[in-house]
Amino acid sequence: MKAPSRPPPEDKLKGLLMNIDLLLGQLGVRLDDIRGNDFHARSPIDGLPIAGLRADTAGDVARKIAAAHAAFLAWRRVPAPRRGELARVYAEVLRENKDQLGRLVSIETGKILQ
User: Fold this and answer.
1) Which of 16, 24, 102, 106 would give a disulfide with 29, using CB separation of 3.0 to 4.6 Å?
2) What is the pTM of this model?
3) 1, 68 in Cβ contact below 8 A?
4) Rounded Cα distance, 103 and 99, in Å
5) Integer Cα distance of 55 and 36 in angstroms
6) Residue range 9-59, pLDDT digits in tens
7) For the residues of 17-55, what is the DSSP string, one character each?
8) Angle formed by the axes of helices 9-26 and 98-109, to 10°?
9) How many other β-carbons are positioned within 10 Å of the β-carbon of residue 43?
10) Are 8 and 25 in contact (CB under 8 A)?
């Protein structure tokens, strides 16, 4: 009897990363802000590329710091119960995706899932 075929590791990685992209989008991360070809992250397990990242210019960093500060000023005006509810929803999304996130951390760190 022939063993069932398994997808190559590259296909599994691509599928996982596509799911992570969807999760990041749900959490409000703009992928265009982080994707690029300036730096390449590789898996310590097999050396396969995990992601291409872009380097920020000094202007990018200044804009991001200004945006973070503006977000902080707006966030602190949100009543504590509402902030707690938003944090709960955020945690719920993370829990719903914990298996995928665990696999991603395993790939990034070179640790084998048990």
Assistant:
1) 24
2) 0.56
3) no
4) 6
5) 8
6) 556 656 666 677 777 777 677 777 777 778 888 888 788 787 788 888 899
7) HHHHHHHHHHTT--GGGTEEEEEEEE-TTT--EEEEE-P
8) 120
9) 16
10) no
Give, rounded to a whole angstrom, the gap between the first and last alpha carbons of the chain: 28
Give the tokens for residue 78: 């949100």
Long-range contacts of 69-76 (CB under 8 A, 24+ apart): none
Residue 48: CB atoms within 10 Å: 12
What residues are paired with 52 via a beta bridge?
Answer: 40
Residues in the chain: 114
Distance CA 17, CA 100 (A): 9
Which residues lie below 8 Å from residue 110, measured CB to CB, with a gap of 6+? 43, 44, 45
